[in-house]
Design a protein that fits this description.
Rossmann fold
Length: 268
Amino acid sequence: MFFSLIKSNNQENLHFVRSYQPQNKEVKHLRILLHGPAGAGKSSFFNSVESVLRGRVTGRALTDANSGSTFTTKYTAYTIHKDQESFYSFIFNDIMGFEPKNGSGVHVEDIKLALMGHVRENYKFRPEGQLTDADQGYNESPALDDRVHVLVSVLPAGLVSIANDEVVKKMREVRLAASEMGIPQLAILTKVDEACPKVKKDMKKVYKSKYLKEQVNKFSSLLGLPPNCIFLVKNYESENSTNDDINALILSALRQMITFGEDFLNNL
């Protein structure tokens, strides 16, 4: 029943996303930052959002299914074409993933700087050293448009119970920093089909799955996010065309990201 309601809202959610414009005139685009461990599905989620909005499967954000370490190395901003002359009014920032070992993966302090708008686009992260104000990639005077307006934590649903303690600690530290800045936070659990065989057979059972509900509650306890801020999604990774069931989950999460971000901008 709950999934049917989400699916029935597909057209309404699409209209909301397509017509969205930030009311705060200091901002041209709402900025959404995806963060989480290497291989969580951050880049794939952006590709999936673009696939839904363009009506065909895309792969602009490069991913690597075989890599055991982070594939994204730069602070990359992705806009999505609405038509030939205009873009959607939100930006996704992809970032290097967390890794459990020191000297690999993105630094927590670098993500905190990104939240404040101090990281320039295309800055290449250095696992061996953090960004400093002497680096070329440092934005000394960020505008509101440069800052992050929504933080989204990303983790595969099947890894919640075995998530590395050090990675979880880093994710929670970023979340707490965002809270101090007043930045709203959401989370998405990806790869729900891999985590639950029943869902793999029928995506309509995603919100009926006791296992996935348990993972949402566990992730809520790990990060301190309310369960209603944690969304279950399946990214477009093996499909050759889009379908309404997968679209429904992605659009539901995307609309809430935009809504939370708009509330943040209006409160400033």
